[in-house]
Design brief:
Layout (H helix, E strand, L loop, with lengths): L1 H39 L3 E5 L9 H12 L8 E6 L12 E5 L2 H9 L25 E4 L3 H17 L3 E5 L2 E5 L6 E4 L10
Antiparallel strand pairs: 1-3, 1-4, 2-3, 5-6, 6-7
Length: about 200
């Protein structure tokens, strides 16, 4: 019985090691798939805070918003634009996802998004949403796991007293203050950097 127990303990130890290796491999493959998915979204942006109206033309709305940021964007730079999410969502207007025909145009809009701080939906001829402050936001089109990690990072950032949080090319960045070092958050384990 002692020999059998020792043999079983040895086999159990080997199986635990193999399981850890497989879990690590699955984690690596999951990150590779997410990176590939994010790469395919590199010409997309999400426009949030735009009230929904019957018969609206999302491409025209996006073009109006884009041209407030830069006049160098034309209708030909927009491949497609449409609302995402369920229509009866009670959390406010559904965001508009827009796919640009080139990264140059997409990056001009994303990099200039702060210019929208001076405008509300009324400046674009849109009514104010009952759920919102009339502001329009331009965000990267993140994969679900990165979006969830961004929410967790935002909570951790606030608790740790970090001032800045942003995304760039699907990566999450934080900075404590104006002169602080920039930290990249790739996984939940990286949140320990904020403490």
């Amino acid at each position: 019985m002692k020999k059998t127990t020792e043999r079983l303990e040895g086999e159990n130890h080997e199986l635990k090691q193999k399981n850890q290796q497989l879990e690590g491999r699955v984690d690596d493959l999951t990150h590779q798939i997410n990176d590939l998915d994010q790469y395919h979204r590199r010409v997309n942006l999400e426009i949030a805070g735009v009230p929904e109206e019957k018969g609206e033309n999302p491409e025209k709305i996006v073009l109006k918003i884009a041209q407030k940021i830069t006049e160098d964007v034309s209708a030909g730079d927009i491949d497609i634009a449409h609302r995402i999410g369920k229509e009866d969502d009670q959390r406010g207007p559904r965001p508009i996802i827009v796919r640009f025909t080139n990264r140059r145009s997409r990056n001009m809009i994303y990099d200039g998004r702060r210019k929208l701080q001076h405008f509300t939906t009324k400046d674009f001829g849109l009514r104010s949403s009952s759920k919102g402050n009339g502001r329009i936001y331009v965000n990267e089109n993140l994969v679900a796991s990165t979006r969830e990690l961004l929410k967790e990072t935002n909570r951790a950032r606030r608790l740790a007293g970090y001032k800045y949080l942003w995304t760039h090319n699907g990566r999450i960045y934080v900075k404590k203050n104006d002169g602080g070092a920039i930290s990249v958050i790739n996984r939940k384990e990286d949140l320990s950097k904020l403490q």
